[in-house]
Design goal:
Layout lengths: L1 E4 L4 H6 L3 E4 L23 H31 L4 E4 L5 H7 L4 E4 L10 H14 L9 H4 L3 E3 L17 E2 L16 E5 L11 H9 L5 E5 L16 E4 L4 H4 L5 E4 L3 H9 L4 E3 L6 H11 L2 E3 L7 H13 L1 H15 L4 H12 L1
Parallel strand pairs: 1-2, 3-4, 4-5, 5-6, 7-8, 7-10, 8-9, 10-11, 11-12
Length: about 350
Amino acid sequence: MAIAGSGGLVPRIQNAGFTAFATSPMVHHDPAPPSQTRKPLEVMDARAATIEFADNFAERGARRMALAMPDVIRAFRPDLVLRDETDLGTTIAAELLDVPVATHLVLAAGLLIRPELVAPRLDALRAEHGLPPDPALTRLTSGLVLTDAAPSFRSPKSPLPMRPTPYNSFDTPRASARADRPGIYVTLGTIFNHASGDLFERLLAGLADLDVDVVATVGEGTDPADLGPQPTHVRVERFLPQREVLPAVDLVISHGGSGSLMATLAHGLPSLLLPLGADQPHNGMRAVELGVAATLDAATVTSEEVGARARELLADEAVRARCVAVADEWRELPGPSVAVAALEGAAS
């Protein structure tokens, strides 16, 4: 097995013991410097996020992968290429070289890829490579599809119909009795924290007066000291593994990225979401629809609103029960061996 990724990820792939192929120069996705100034807060609504995705992933990103991946495929000669669902260019490269493709879902709600925005851009790229148009995006939905998420979270309104094979890679304990003193975890992920403005300050100020223990991670590029002094019950770190934090808290306050939100639900925990862009507005809408989260407007929310909404969610046993039900659904799925067997079958 080999893994292709942006140049900045190649050392990590190699350190994990895998053969790596770079699809861009090493400067792409290089780690953030030890400390950097946070940029002003940027918030996109769902519509703007779909347009931005089409411009970035169906235009620039797809073009980069369609150019880079043929050389990777020729060099490694795989029997199967596994892409994530936001990688729209690898399907073109694989089609040119007649290699089957499997897809792994990574967008929790499944609403970010809009055919009316993505298909024209991809068809123009396909024409450049001598391929016929694919207005229905059938190349993105055919073949094996895997998902490591609770099937019920994927929206039935997803414009790309798929029948994924679900599995569960999360090793999470069943929800236990809550501690006398609740815990709250605050995170804005690994990318959007760089353009969060004063959002961290507002979030922590809203939690300062609550009788809870707070753990916040601000990212490798932000110095926790930049947020100023905090009460003794508020701990701020650059990074902590979520697998260590989530079992010890009762509520997660996040941007609603697919990774953070799915890990939260895998632990049966409710969320207070402040979507900033990408798949987050759609994830927030779906989470509210399922009754497993509440949302606030990151651009306008006050610290008082944060504290009040957090207090309400901590006391809402019905929301907690729905989150536990999603976690139980997920826990009943088969383990990663099912995904491995499916990939082996698709490659044979």
